[in-house]
Amino acid sequence: MIQPRLTSVLLFVAAPVAATLHKQSTPPMGWNSYNYYNCDPSEEIIKNTAEALVNSGLAALGYDYVTTDCGWMTRDRDGDGRLQWNETLFPSGGKALGTYIHDLGLKFGLYSGAGYYQCGSVDLPASLGYEEIDAQSFADWGGDSLKYDNCYSSSPDVMVNNSSPISQSPVRHQKMAAVLDSVDRDIAYYICQWGIGYNVGEWASPISNAWRISNDIYNSWRSIWRITNEVIPYWRHTRVGAFADMDMLIIGLNALSPEEERFHFSMWAINKSPLKIGAPLAESAIVPAESLDILSNREVIAINQDSLSKQARLILRYTEEEWDLWAGELSDSRMVLGIANWKNETQTVSVDLTVVGVQEANARDVWAHEDLGRLRGAGTWYLKGHEMKLLVLSEIAKPPLAPNGTGFHAAENATLSGSAVVESCAEDKCLPAGSRARYITSDSTVTFEGIASNGEGTKLLGVDFINYEIATDSAWQWGSNTRNMTVAVNGGRAKRWAFPISGGDWAEADRMFIEVDGFVDGDVNTVSFAGFGDSYAPDLVGFEVFE
Ligand SMILES: *[C@@H]1O[C@H](CO)[C@@H](O)[C@H](O)[C@H]1NC(C)=O
Ligand SMILES: *[C@@H]1O[C@H](CO)[C@@H](O)[C@H](O)[C@H]1NC(C)=O
Ligand SMILES: *[C@@H]1O[C@H](CO)[C@@H](O)[C@H](O)[C@H]1NC(C)=O
Ligand SMILES: *[C@@H]1O[C@H](CO)[C@@H](O)[C@H](O)[C@H]1NC(C)=O
Ligand SMILES: *[C@@H]1O[C@H](CO)[C@@H](O)[C@H](O)[C@H]1NC(C)=O
Ligand SMILES: *[C@@H]1O[C@H](CO)[C@@H](O)[C@H](O)[C@H]1NC(C)=O
Q1: Measured in angstroms, how far is the CA atom of residue 484 from the centroid of ligand 6?
Q2: Which among 513, 479, 478 has a CA at the least distance from the CA of 499?
Q3: CA separation (Å) from 69 to 149, 279, 318?
Q4: Whole-angstrom distance, CA of residue 470 vs CA of residue 465
Q5: What is the pTM of this model?
Q6: Which is the closest atom of ligand 6 to the Cα of 533?
Q7: Catalytic residue among 64, 69, 144, 149, which?
Q8: Domain map of the chain by residue range?
Q9: Which backbone phi and psi does 93 adopt, to 5 degrees?
Q10: For residue 199, what pLDDT is reported?
Q11: DSSP structural state of residue 420
């Protein structure tokens, strides 16, 4: 497989807390009350949903954590400083609810926050400063997991402050990890810090089972693009027992078309996100049967729960054409391919298996439940609007000749115009060059001369870039976690690509592959990068042509 470069993957600083909290090796699955019931859960809702999980067969497929999100506790702690379940909403209390859930063969998911007050409230107490007492209560009630949020973390007056260094700091979440680890019950820990600040995967993956990487999912198709572009760099941190959480599934909420629900489920599954249902399963008139079928797809669940726990990688992006090629390793030397049609119209695309390191393989079309026989070389695929095709490849034969890089071209050696400048970076940053061009706009270019091409036409380029423009405040509008950059060859048309988030800060690069036309034979090509529209391009570290 052509692989984006390994950057500082092996260089993390060890976290202060031991990794003993990893309770589940594969991504957590279950249901959470927030997406439909907001911060208004009740005992009846939780019990009815737990029963519906069992009766629908979803529990048997692995959806076993039943989580009561915000809104369960009273305004006042008891005389011993303990959180109390609101008796109006939960007349039987937390321990009885835990028993009820356990008796159904399910697991009891709890929720609190690392701040003064709870999210979605103005006065409900959260766990900051009460970590030991609360962790003991969670254990006493029979809790099996804790989702730990991040509201009112810097001040009792401000619910969400994404730019506050206190809100961004790992310290409060690390504290709860250590305390949970010391109670006498296995409680899986799901950090919900929203991916703000820096290097969240580095500090969260050693201490939690799953960590949220983004602002909340919004019940609309546009969330799928935004969160997908944010999860991409977490391939460095996702592993057995540690998963980047793309947030709850909006399947069955009548927010997406069935095709879009399959796309959403596919994208979450191959990225090894936890699979948390948000639909009101107990209200059968609301959840379409087709949505239940999608959530129940055993083959897609098996991809998500594969024992290797390898996050898929974005392999090739075609932004103007609006589709991506994804690939991920599976156990037994298999591979999953994802062909994602971001366009809301049908299109036929061509995929050459050699770019994912495959000469030929047996293929199964997962959503079609169809074995396609042996595939080799380039093939065309018909995609419906917003369809994501999933193929599982097995019995893979590797090609004798995979595409090779023909030498790296550093932006520091390019000719700059306009506002673009080259800066050098700290050691091990802006890899592989150690420097990058910044402030690339539509009026400024980064131009490379004398680029070699073996033959004319379309070439595969690996582009090393940096983008850390995180959509937090803009997340529910049109924030996309991308930056546009154009590429023009030999004075041809400047074509646009959307570059996703590259790493954990403004100096961690990733590589994205693109196909660019217009090359001529010989050492004579000019390749020019530029911004697009009113906003900056990603920083450009350099690129390489593959033959
Ligand atoms: C319990 O919940 C009800 C309904 O939301 C609310 O009116 C009441 O104030 C809550 N009680 C306490 C003690 O927080
Ligand atoms: C958010 O935090 C920043 C940095 O600490 C601070 O300057 C700003 O005033 C805070 N915003 C609010 C609304 O409190
Ligand atoms: C996709 O196209 C369909 C049919 O034209 C339309 O109803 C739907 O609103 C479009 N979806 C989005 C997300 O734009
Ligand atoms: C790629 O490099 C390998 C090793 O140097 C070489 O054997 C192979 O022929 C090259 N492939 C192509 C397509 O040039
Ligand atoms: C960039 O230019 C320097 C100085 O001319 C040269 O030593 C180096 O090899 C070049 N690097 C790349 C990656 O082109
Ligand atoms: C990238 O360009 C597209 C097409 O013009 C536009 O819709 C999108 O908003 C741009 N994205 C950014 C982050 O500027």
Answers
A1: 6
A2: 513
A3: 10, 14, 38
A4: 15
A5: 0.95
A6: 14
A7: 149
A8: 29-304, 313-397, 405-546
A9: 85, 175
A10: 98
A11: -
Query: Of 116, 157, 163, 472, which is best to mutate to test ligand 2, by the most ligand atoms within 8 angstroms of its C-beta?
Result: 163
Distance between CA atoms of residues 67 and 126, nearest Å: 17
Band of pLDDT at residue 36, cut at 50, 70 and 90: very high
Q: Within a 13 Å sphere around the CA of 104, how many CA atoms are in the beta-carbon half? A: 27
Answer yes or no: are the C-beta atoms of 59 and 53 closer than 8 Å. Answer: yes
Give the integer Cα–Cα distance in Å for 17 and 166: 19
Is the model's pLDDT at 115 over the cut of 80?
yes
Q: Which CATH number among 3.10.450.50, 3.90.198.10, 3.40.50.12280, 2.60.120.260 corresponds to the domain 405-546?
A: 2.60.120.260
Q: Are 447 and 528 in contact (CB under 8 A)?
A: yes
Closest residue by Cα to atom 3, ligand 6, is 484
3-state secondary structure of 186: coil
Distance CA 469, CA 186 (A): 37
Residue 314, C-beta contacts closer than 8 angstroms, at least 6 positions apart: 232, 324, 325, 326, 500, 512
**Which mutation among 218, 222, 257 tests ligand 3's pocket best, with the greatest number of atoms within 8 A of CB?**
257
State in Å: Cα 506 to ligand 5 middle. Answer: 23
CA of 46 to the centre of ligand 1 (A): 17
CA of 507 to the centre of ligand 4 (A): 31
Please tell me whether residue 464 adopts helix, strand or coil conformation.
Answer: strand
Class of domain 29-304: alpha beta
- What one-letter code names the amino acid at 239? R
**Tokens found for residue 434:** 């150690």
The answer to whether residue 245 is catalytic is: no
Is 313-397 a domain of CATH 3.60.140.10?
Answer: no
Give ligand 2 pocket residues (Cβ under 6 A): 158, 161, 163-165
Tens of pLDDT, residue by residue over 400-444, are 877 889 999 999 999 999 999 999 999 999 999 999 999 999 999
Which atom in ligand 6 lies closest to the alpha carbon of residue 498?
A: 1
If one counts every other C-beta atom within 10 angstroms of the C-beta of residue 521, the result is 12
**CA-nearest residue, atom 10 of ligand 3:** 344
Q: Assess whether 505 carries a catalytic annotation.
A: no
Query: What tokens appear for 340 in the block?
Result: 């994602």
Confidence bin at 12 (pLDDT 50/70/90): very low
Please give the torsion angle defined by the CA atoms of residues 248, 250, 251 and 254, in that order, rounded to the nearest 10 degrees.
160
- Token readout for 350 is 């061509």
**Hunting for tokens 């087709």 — which residue is that?**
290
Higher-confidence residue: 198 or 404? 198
